[in-house]
Amino acid sequence: MEHALAHFLSKFTYLAIIAALAAGGLGVPIPEDLTLLLGGGLAARGVTEFWPTLLCGYFGVLLGDVLIHRWGARLGPAAYEHPRVRKHLPRARQQKLFRHFERHGFLTIVVGRHTPVLRAPIFFLAGAARLPLWKFLLADAISSAVTVPIVVALGFYFVEHLDAIRGKIHEVEWIVAAVAVLAVVVWFVLRRRRQERAI
Fold it and tell me: How far is the C-alpha of 60 from the C-alpha of 54, rounded, in Å?
């Protein structure tokens, strides 16, 4: 996978970076971090320029995420009517899910962007729950503006150690995700206590 992707990126450069990241949003198993690292590595070797590579990586990430959101917006409501889905996610739970995205959609997207396993399902559910595209895109753009430059820069400066860097990125992602989830849980607990005291 890595060698084939590296060859594809080196041959078609900027368009390939966008295409690979967008394909990830459509469900093709192309790791986002690997594409961004390899893009940074191409810039380090002079195959591409750093800033255009970074901009293409950023645009490709956003495009892939928007495709997941729109997929959820188009298929989500219909999927909820399937008997198996209704069995595990009855209408009452669906309404709870929708209300959650209405109230906490922005924060949920920020957390989802940094949670590797849950990223695609969260973005899909956000679309299915009719979270406005502008709100989704704003949250995703702010989060990506932090992570994408870091990963591309790591590929650029540590091009000879991409495997080790990728392993470290996964470790950091899980740590960030755990901290983010813990922060959300603490926030909900404190909020509920305030509500109970107010009653």
Answer: 10
